[in-house]
Amino acid sequence: MFSKNTFVSAIGATLLAGGAFFYGPDLLAFCGFYVAKADARLFNQASRVVLARDGDRTVLTMANDYQGDLRDFAIVIPTPTFLEREQINVAEPALIDRIDAFTAPRLVEYFDENPCDMRRYEYDRSVQYSDNAGESPGRQPAPGRGVTIEARYAVGEYDILILSARESEGLELWLRENGYRIPNGATEVLGSYIRQNMRFFVARVNLAEQAAGGRTYLRPLQIAYESPKFMLPIRLGTVNSDGPQELFIFGLSPRGRIETTNYRTVRIPTNSEVPIFIKNEFSSFYRDMFSVQVKKEDMRAVFLEHAWDMSWCDPCAAEPLSPDELRKLGVFWLSEAAAARNAAQGVNAFVTRLHLRYTAESFPSDLVFQETGDRQNFQGRYVLRHPYQGAAECSAGKEYRRGLVTRREREAQTLAGLTGWNIDVIRQKMGVFAAPTPTPGPGPGPAPWWRRVFQN
To answer: For residue 18, which of 237, 275, 318, 362 is within the disulfide window of CB 3.0 to 4.6 Å?
Structure first.
């Protein structure tokens, strides 16, 4: 996402790379199965962040997609409060991979039953397809620049400074003088955070610690703080970006769904039946479908891709996170007793997956969130329905065969509408999956005698 020489950033940059369906109590076990998912790896320049929020307390976990010489890596993150050493941690990237996999939009498939088995056929038709280190405390002023080093910490493989500043030009000059390459245009954005009395969390890699740990990757940074501000600063990340960026936000709350308050939160299209060949092209399908939705909203909306109680899933793209995994992602409200119980019995964590594509022009303000009490389940979900392959000579079977033509055309139209793909190309690809020809029965036999009489 960033070139080797562009490495001072903030949330949304280096660190992040900077209708609904319902289940009634009478619905039987999930009768299709999951076959693919659309996780963050489908997108270039994709950043991931986890926000665990309860009341005014927030734990922010930030995965970075930096690629390049680690000597060139540094990050600047505006924070609403001063951070003590104990409020900073490092996490394992596998944790973010887990929540990404659990919440990813998914492709599921079903296989039609014999339509001549009327009881089963009518049931299927009635089911809605749901589808460690040292610390140097104390304030150290930097004369002439209006910048104060409020603390220095060593955390894992990172050396961290907590800075405050009186004005943006002084902060920018101080950063440049201390070896941080600041992209052009950062002054105005830095100034907006200074006016909000925010601190600056600055991290760079301690190469000796990195080598001692034997890691070839950077672990996610975590910060915990208490503030009525429930926000994510993304504006610094747009300063040194050469195009739109992808951001995935995984919100965890004991209350319910998390949504943005200063931008529209829009649900991604879901529960669409698409042609069978999408099984081999799901990545292309989802990328293009998401691009169409972004264009419809003029790149000014945040998209909801998943909202679910973490204690269960149906279907599961991945198993729900365990209480221990959730606590490591910042779910501090889980008690030890709850953690010791089975996840389905003891976890009180509702997960929200938000996805946005943004530029400085389309998202001129940082993201502001709120916890809601909405615990309605939602997921981006796309359905393959395989036609019945056997002979079906009953009247219901003949009706079923005729209906397949309409169904296939509806799937083609749906796919074209979602992705903008050419409808003729879609129909051509669907030809490979034409409805099977029924097994021929015995011949019609000789014509009845009266037909021979009246035809003469």
So the answer is: 237
Cβ neighbors of 390 (< 8 A, separation 6 or more) are 114, 439
Q: Tokens representing 385?
A: 């329905």
CA distance readout (Å), 394 to 123, 290, 386, 391, 406: 17, 42, 20, 9, 19
Tell me the pLDDT band of 407, cut-offs 50, 70 and 90: very high
Residue length of the chain = 456
Residue 181 confidence (pLDDT): 77
- Per-residue pLDDT band for 177 (boundaries 50, 70, 90) equals confident
Tracing tokens 């070839």 back to the chain, one arrives at: 216
Is beta strand 221-226 parallel, antiparallel or unpaired with respect to 57-63? antiparallel
CA–chain centroid gap for 351, Å, is: 11
Residues 236-282: tens digit of each pLDDT? 877 766 789 899 999 999 999 999 999 999 999 999 999 999 999 99
Structure tokens at 221: 């940074």
Distance CA 183, CA 172 (A): 10
CB atoms inside a 10 Å sphere around CB 369: 24
Both tokens of residue 194? 């200074």
Question: E strands along 348-415, which residues?
Answer: 350-358, 367-371, 378-379, 381-386
What spatial distance separates the first Cα and last Cα of the chain, rounded to whole Å?
83
Neighbours of 439 (CB within 10 A): 9
Identify residue 437 by its one-letter amino acid code.
T
pTM for the complete prediction?
0.81
